[in-house]
Structures are given as structure tokens and as C-alpha cells.
């Protein structure tokens, strides 16, 4: 038994898939920018002077690697 698919239906499904894919890429890009903005805000909010640093306020190298991995995964 053969099932014939109309050209319009195939184009509609491909168009829907393309739109969903582009929306997903946009959301991933926005999420990476939010992560980058969070780390940048944390870096700018650090007080001046070595005595004021605590382990909670400082940016760890792991934070930078997470941001780099996040941005590179979406590019």
C-alpha cells in the first residue's frame, strides 16, 4: 500500500521544523548572554582591595570556564 504525501504538506512540516529550530537557537543564545552578563556583573561588583575579598564574592576560574563553554556550545 502506498501513501502519497502532498508537496504542500512536506513544505509545511519543513517550515515548522525550521521555525522551531531557529527559536531554539535564539533561546540558547539569549541564555548564554544572560550567563555572560551575570558573571560580568559579579566581576564588576567586586570591591577594590585584597582585604575585602572573600571566597563567596570572588569569581572562581571555574565560573569563567563555564561561561566559555556555554558561549562556545551555541556558536
Question: What is the global morphology?
Answer: rod-shaped
Major pleated sheet: none
Q: What integer value in Å does the Rg equal? A: 22 Å
Task: Assess the beta-strand content as a share of residues.
Answer: under 5%
By DSSP (H or I, 4+ residues per run), the number of helices equals 2
Low-pLDDT segments, ≥5 res: none
Find the structural class using helix and strand composition.
mainly alpha
* Total strand segments: 0
Mean pLDDT: 80
The SSE string, one letter per element, is HH
Task: Assign a percent range to the helix content.
Answer: 55-70%
Terminal-residue CA separation: 45 Å
Write a brief structural summary.
The protein is mainly α and 75 residues long. It has helices at 7-44, 61-74. 69% of the residues lie in helices and 0% in strands.
What can you tell me about this protein's structure?
It is a single chain. This protein is mainly α. It has a domain at 27-75. The protein contains two helices and no strands. It has helices at residues 7-44, 61-74.
Give a topology summary:
Elements: H1 7-44, H2 61-74
Overview features:
2 helices, mainly alpha, 75 residues, rod-shaped
